[in-house]
Specification:
The chain is α/β, with parallel strands linked by helices and about 180 residues long. The chain is built from 4 helices and 10 strands.
Length: about 180
């Protein structure tokens, strides 16, 4: 059972620029469409947990829903999945530790935790076991940070680094 993060950041630790944009993620040419380990990662999880804002950003891209696994969206106000996605998106709320246990009881043991605030909240509860952080070589100078305040330090161990496209580094960390 593991809660996992797979996310890209700028060199200075941002997941979105000052205007909330993520176009900078695609500045490095990728002519062969290297997925940089994404499909293997998706194969390693049972379901996703993301925040409502992340879901709404994904829906704004105007693409088909990208996830082949169930997605549990955290929201205190939204009670129904968007039309047409009722079999893919499930709205949840409440205590994160309880949510993780409820999902495990339903057979969802390996969770992909996505979205800045959601990741920060899971870290505050010490509920992240593994993080794969892909660093894009750009300094944004501001925007939405991946990490926030913690009551105490959380220690991780680097277990792998992979270089892609002669520019991007993906680092995998597990809880120490």
């Amino acid at each position: 059972m593991a809660n996992k993060v797979f996310i890209a950041t700028s060199l200075d630790g941002y997941i979105a620029d000052k205007s909330g944009g993520v176009d900078w993620l695609h500045e490095i040419p990728n002519p062969d469409n290297d997925d940089m380990g994404y499909h293997d990662f998706i194969d390693s999880i049972d379901a996703l947990v993301m925040g409502r804002n992340t879901m709404e950003i994904l829906l704004s891209f105007g693409i088909d829903w990208p996830y082949p696994k169930p997605v549990f969206v955290l929201s205190n106000t939204l009670k129904q999945a968007p039309a047409g996605l009722e079999d893919k998106i499930f709205m949840v709320s409440g205590d994160l530790k309880r949510l993780v246990q409820d999902l495990a009881d339903k057979g969802y043991n390996d969770l992909y935790i996505d979205g800045g605030v959601t990741i920060q909240n899971f870290l505050k509860e010490d509920l992240i076991d593994e993080m794969t952080i892909t660093t894009i070589p750009v300094l944004l100078g501001g925007g939405k940070r991946l990490f926030g305040e913690l009551a105490e330090p959380l220690k991780f161990k680097n277990v792998n680094n992979q270089r892609y496209l002669d520019a991007i580094v993906s680092s995998k960390f597990v809880r120490a």
